[in-house]
Amino acid sequence: MERTFQKLVPTRDDSWVTVDVYGDGPGLLMVPGVMSDAGGWRHVARAMTAWPSVSILNRRGRTPSGPLGDDYSLRTEVDDLAAVLEQIGEPRAIFGWSYGGLIALLLASERPVGHVIAYEPVAPGFGAAALPSLRTADDLGDWDRSVEIVNRDVSGFSAEHVELLRSDPVAWATLRQLSEPLYAELRALSQADIPGSLGSHAGLVDLIIGEDNLDRAPYGTSFEQIRRRLPDADVHRLPGQGHLAHVDAPAALGRMLDLLVRS
Predict the structure, then answer these.
(1) Model pLDDT, residue 31
(2) Whether residue 242 sits in one domain with residue 135
(3) 95: part of which helix (H) or strand (E)?
(4) Are 78 and 110 a contacting pair, CB within 8 Å?
(5) Do 201 and 81 have their domain in common?
(6) Whole domain around residue 19: which residue ranges?
(7) Quick one: pLDDT at residue 1?
(8) For the chain, is the Cβ count within 10 Å smaller at the N or the C terminus?
(9) What is the pLDDT of residue 105?
(10) How many domains does the chain have?
């Protein structure tokens, strides 16, 4: 499936977001998380065959979408997602990854959503211990340091993993750019509350966890906080994968999402 067009959606605070659309007709709407953008999910979209279309939200703070804005919070993200639905129509399902998974579930706390699929949605407080160092890096515009912090102190990856990323100048430049809204996003997450109604207006909820993260901090333990709030959700394990399945195994993730199409 190839991208057919990109749509610009005005938001309620004079910013904007863009949506990359693959295929045609009501299908799957994807909401990426932090350190990710619509382009980073293109390989997953191209691997999928069971959905009539795949639309990928490029959240604010990512080119060519607009700025975060001075009053940025998770409320901003939920309102942006609602604005996208008003513009493109109701999809058959909303898929969110990590921070995007929480955004999708929060939307489904407030309005009917037919089907929510969330890959390792993070809970409020995730990454909060790194906020002081991220704030310093943000104040200095030191995006190299921001990338190091999110990989080492938030995600728990090794120093060798970071150096491998740094060895690819193009990939590292992309990560630097994606880290610019990172401090504001994790600060917003630290200030958020999970409502008792989380996901309550979703007709169906499917949760996905990478098998490598089962019962492991930080992603598996954060996932478990969300899972406990959603006792009726179906839980699926993606074999041999962790949090970055869209990078490491886009075809495998695409196949799993294809299997979650509901009539």
Answers:
(1) 98
(2) no
(3) strand 93-97
(4) yes
(5) yes
(6) 3-124+192-259
(7) 73
(8) C
(9) 98
(10) 2
79, 166: one domain: no
pTM of the predicted protein model: 0.97
Q: Which helix (H) or strand (E) holds 45?
A: helix 42-47
Give the pLDDT score at 2.
77
Output the pLDDT for position 238: 98
Amino acid identity at 101:
G
Instruction: Give 199: exposed, middle or buried? Use CB within 10 Å, 0-12, 13-18, 19+.
Output: buried
Instruction: Report the distance separating Cα 44 and Cα 51, nearest Å.
Output: 12
Neighbours of 176 (CB within 10 A): 15
Q: Residue 20: which H helix or E strand, with range?
A: strand 16-23
Residue ranges in the chain modelled with pLDDT below 70: none
**What does the angle CA 257 – CA 220 – CA 134 come to, to the nearest 5 degrees?**
105
In the block, residue with structure tokens 């904007």: 16
Q: Where are the beta strands (DSSP E) in 199-255?
A: 202-210, 234-238
Q: How many residues does the chain have?
A: 263
CATH number at residue 219: 3.40.50.1820
User: Rounded to an integer, what distance in angstroms lies between the CA atom of residue 239 and that of residue 216?
Assistant: 15
With tokens 């699926």, the residue in question is 236
Burial group, residue 95, by CB count within 10 angstroms (0-12, 13-18, 19+): buried
- If asked whether residues 143 and 209 sit together in one domain, one would say no
Number of H helices, E strands in the chain: 11, 8
- Domain final residue pick, 191, 226, 243: 191
Instruction: Please report, for residues 5, 51, 207, 257, the alpha-carbon distance to residue 262 in angstroms, rounded to integers and kept in the order given.
Output: 25, 10, 14, 10
Alpha helices in 109-213 (DSSP H): 131-140, 143-149, 159-166, 169-178, 182-190
* Residues 174 and 221 reside in one and the same domain: no
